[in-house]
Amino acid sequence: MPTPDQERPSTLPGDYNPAEYSAEYKLLYLQGLVADKAYEAITEFLEKQSEYEIANLLESFPTQNRLLIWAQVPENIKGEVLAELEFDTRQPLMENISSKEISLFTQDLDAQDISEILDTVTESVRTSVMATLDEETRVQVNKLDTYEDWEVGSYMDPDLIQVREDISLAEVQNWLRENDELLDDESQELLVVDQSQQLLGLLSLVDLIKHDQSTLVSELIDTAITINDRLDIQDAAAIFRSEDIRFAPVINSHGELVGQLNGEDIMEIIQDDVDSTMKNLAGVSQDEELFAPILTSAKSRSVWLGINLCTALLAAAVIGQFEAVLAKVVALAVLMPVVASMGGIAGSQTLTVVIRGMAMGQIGGSNRLWLLNKELWVGAINGIIWAIIMAFIAQLWFHDIKISTVIGFAIAINMTAANVSGISIPLMLKRMDIDPALSASVILTTVTDIVGFMSFLGLASILIL
Predict the structure, then answer these.
(1) Strands 227-228 and 247-251, how do they pair?
(2) Which residues cross the membrane (predicted)?
(3) Which of 91, 284, 440, 457 could disulfide-link 279, Cβ–Cβ 3.0 to 4.6 Å?
């Protein structure tokens, strides 16, 4: 199998199987085609990719190249590709697409994908496209658009396979055979409702087959784990993880069945949440994509760089209070970054674990105090171990027991404080309804720098001057 480390491939075999090539290998190949402006070859290549792969490839190019590649995407899958793209990638591609073209792209899509695409267009284009949809699809799209972006309802699939409780298994099977397009390879259960659309439970396809066909559906109903349509999608993802389910019926406040939430949608939410957390921890805007324009990226990052500068100046002000001791003992200036660095790493380790635990819904109630106590001891133990090691190194380096003692105690203090801060800061931010991933790392850096410098230089002032 070709590896990404190989040279950029100039050709692919005639019996090319997309599954045999890595994503990076395909990217290298497509880059060569784009550089050569080999339009026919680009089209031929894209015809063999799925909509997911094409979307990923488009997002791997700068904007000007995306437009070139987009023009070569086969017309019959452009709608599916648009639905898979991130908003910021999709928007420039749709700027010069007419409402008539969008209608053609969306004619075979489900309501979820159509709603995703129409979020990118103007109101006039949206109205024109909506007028071309059949009544059932139009109702479903409008239903999805009544929900906020963070609500389960905006992610659910409103197209349901549901059966009544008062019919026989034979009738269900006959109905499914007449409408064989309803079931896909992932289907394992049918939704059971009563005459007023109240959800009663699930009918397993295994039960549908193995039981006497004269049996009524009502006799084989399994309990369903339901999700409210107004629930926060992050809370719904936590339910999916804890209950280990692949899909869940979505009901409204009246208990009426309005849609279903699928595992693949939840996986997308979890991935988006991971991406968002990683960006927030680094002080990068959630909306910034990899190949965003230079000025856009510079602007999105400048806010947190400015905040970081303010915190750095605060730490510098602390150092300035100990100018006298630094002027007399040059070794302190050499060792000072070690204290801050060890505290910063220890705190970041704790912060990462804690924020992940929060995202998984694992931290709350009485276990917060247990975790605080645990991190206190972890920080103290590691602090003492690395304090002894660093003190020994400092003694070999400077041959001064006072300097060795100062660096040892400062590292032990700072690493302990860093671990405690790593759990207490995100807990405090969460109580204040502030996203811990967004600002915890900046606050933690400030704390470890200030505690590290004050303990190091303060002890030096006492023991050395």
Answers:
(1) parallel
(2) 303-322, 334-355, 376-397, 403-429, 441-464
(3) 284
Fold of 18-149: MgtE N-terminal fold (1.25.60)
Burial of 205 (0-12, 13-18, 19+ CB in 10 A): middle
CA–CA gap between residue 283 and residue 291 (Å, rounded): 17
- Residue range 370-390, pLDDT digits in tens: 999 999 999 999 999 999 999
Give how far the C-alpha of residue 309 lies from the chain's centroid of Cα atoms, to the nearest Å. 28
Query: Using CA atoms, how far apart are residues 79 and 102, in angstroms rounded to an integer?
Result: 8
Orientation of helix 263-281 relative to helix 436-463, angle to 10°: 30
Residues 6+ apart with CB under 8 A from 313: none
Given a contact cutoff of 8 angstroms between Cβ atoms, the answer to whether 459 and 409 are in contact is: yes
Please write the tens of the pLDDT for every residue from 99-127: 899 999 888 898 989 998 998 888 999 99
Q: What is the mean pLDDT of the chain?
A: 83
What residues does each domain of the chain span? 18-149, 162-282, 294-464
User: Which residues contact residue 372 at a Cβ distance below 8 angstroms, ignoring those fewer than 6 apart?
Assistant: 420, 423, 424
pLDDT at 14 over 60: no
- Helices 111-118 and 99-106 sit at what angle, rounded to 10 degrees? 160
Fold adopted by 162-282: CBS-domain (3.10.580)
Give the amino acid at 373. Answer: N
Q: Measured at the alpha carbon of residue 86, what is the angle toward residues 83 and 91, in degrees to the nearest 5? A: 85
The string of pLDDT tens digits covering residues 341-365 is 899 899 888 988 888 788 766 787 8
3-state class (DSSP) for residue 257: strand
pTM: 0.64
